[in-house]
Each structure stands twice: as structure tokens, then as C-alpha cells.
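> forwarded from #structure-qc
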């Protein structure tokens, strides 16, 4: 039986890969969905108890309300990265990466299938946390489409970075190093818990060079109507960074970089 293609795209294979990635994280939903919700809730509770009563307003909104979009986006970022990086790294370590490389899927189709899983996980996490924020803090997005757009951009960008890290890593220690020394620091130092206007000028300049800052700032604008930078600029920077990351992934998959023995 021939491969079902419409035009030049193997839609059946692409759908199967994307669905496999979604089923993969849904099979352990307590770890991939409930755990991020609990972690986000703990962040909000701890900051509310420790700092909230004395912090005052930030950019015209209560401190707890201000950090809610940042925590939501940071959680999306971490989960999107984890989805693609762990999927491809596990396949390499366990030796079954050939099951993904053997089917008639192009480099672009492999890339889209993996990233689709990351976006789906990011969206699901965002919805769950967003419901919690709406119920307990009364924060409802002022511009839902903007929030949706930046959450999808977060999934695409971090899903692509996760693929790069997963392809690069030959063992889980290397993947953990990327997570601990790159992804987590960049997420925490991107305006999640503060406005970058409070930082020294050098730190502000460094923050503006961090694509994660624009992702968090864009979601904050969509939810609260306040931000450190223009959402249009944020969309342009995050979109450009996503295109670069996707191109790197496509090149690595096309060449079989660190995938083929």
C-alpha cells in the first residue's frame, strides 16, 4: 500500500506522529498535567504569603495578579521543552529512534509532528492553570486571542529548543544540564516575578535579548493589559526566534545529526 500523501505531505504519517506525542504525555497525565498545576499553585501561594501583603502593586495591579501570567507561561515553557526533549532523547537512549526515522517522513514532517505534541501539551497546561487562576484570583484574559497566540508561540519555540537539546544529548545527564543551566535560569530571569524596569540597565538589556521574556510579557499583556514591552515587538522577536530554532531543527533532522549511528 502506498503512503497516503496529499500534495507532497504525508498527512497520515504526520498525524500519527503528532498523535503519538500527545498520547505519550496523556498516558502520564498526573505527571504532565496535574504536577504543573500543583507547582504553579504552590508558587502563587508561597509568594502571596511571603511577599504579597507587603509588596504592593506592580504596574497598577496586585502583586499576586501580576505574577500569575508569568507563572502560567513559565510552566508552559518548561513543559513544551520537556515534551520534545524527553521524547527524542529517550528514543535515542533506548535505541528505538529507528522506529521514528524509518517511516517515510521528511525532516519537516518529523519536526512538525514533534512540535505539535509540545504545543498541545503547552496549551493543555495553560488551560488548566488559566482555569485555576480565574477561579482563585479572578483573573480573566482581557485579550484571549493574544494569550492564545503567545502560548502557541511558547510551545513552538520551546518545542524546537527541546528537539535541539534532545538531538544533541546522548544521555540524560546532558539533557538535564541543558534544563538546569539554560532553560530554567532563562525562564526565571525573564520577568516572571518582577517588572524588568526594577533592574539595572545592564540586566534590562540582557532581559531584552531573552526570547522567553517576550513570551511571558506577551501573555501578561493579553491577560492583564500591562507589559514591559509592546506585544507587537514581542510577537516579532518570539516569532523570529521560533523560525531560527525550527530551521536549526530541520537541518539537524535532514542531516541526521547525532541521530544515525
Amino acid at each position: 500500500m502506498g503512503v497516503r500523501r496529499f500534495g507532497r505531505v504525508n498527512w497520515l504519517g504526520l498525524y500519527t506522529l503528532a498523535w503519538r506525542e500527545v498520547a505519550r504525555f496523556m498516558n502520564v497525565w498526573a505527571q504532565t498535567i496535574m504536577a504543573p498545576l500543583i507547582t504553579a499553585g504552590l508558587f502563587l501561594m508561597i509568594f502571596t504569603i511571603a511577599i504579597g501583603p507587603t509588596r504592593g502593586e506592580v504596574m497598577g495591579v496586585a502583586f499576586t495578579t501580576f505574577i500569575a501570567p508569568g507563572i502560567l507561561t513559565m510552566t508552559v515553557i518548561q513543559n513544551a521543552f520537556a515534551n520534545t526533549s524527553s521524547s527524542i532523547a529517550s528514543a535515542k537512549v533506548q535505541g528505538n529512534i529507528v522506529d521514528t526515522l524509518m517511516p517515510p517522513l521528511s525532516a519537516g514532517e518529523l519536526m512538525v509532528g514533534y512540535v505539535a505534541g509540545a504545543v498541545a501539551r503547552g496549551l493543555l497546561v495553560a488551560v488548566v492553570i488559566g482555569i485555576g487562576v480565574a477561579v482563585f484570583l479572578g483573573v480573566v484574559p482581557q485579550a484571549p486571542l493574544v494569550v492564545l497566540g503567545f502560548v502557541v508561540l511558547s510551545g513552538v519555540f520551546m518545542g524546537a529548543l527541546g528537539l535541539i537539546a534532545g538531538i544533541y544529548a546522548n544521555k540524560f545527564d546532558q539533557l538535564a544540564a541543558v534544563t538546569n543551566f539554560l532553560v530554567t535560569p532563562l525562564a526565571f530571569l525573564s520577568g516572571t516575578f518582577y517588572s524588568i524596569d526594577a533592574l539595572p540597565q545592564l540586566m534590562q538589556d540582557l532581559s531584552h535579548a531573552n526570547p522567553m521574556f517576550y513570551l511571558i510579557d506577551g501573555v501578561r499583556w493579553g491577560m492583564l493589559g500591562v507589559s514591559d514591552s509592546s506585544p507587537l515587538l514581542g510577537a516579532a522577536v518570539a516569532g523570529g526566534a521560533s523560525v531560527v530554532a525550527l530551521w536549526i531543527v530541520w537541518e539537524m533532522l535532514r542531516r541526521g545529526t547525532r541521530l544515525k549511528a
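QC bot note: Strands lie at 57-58, 61-62. Confidence is low (pLDDT under 50) at residues 1-6.
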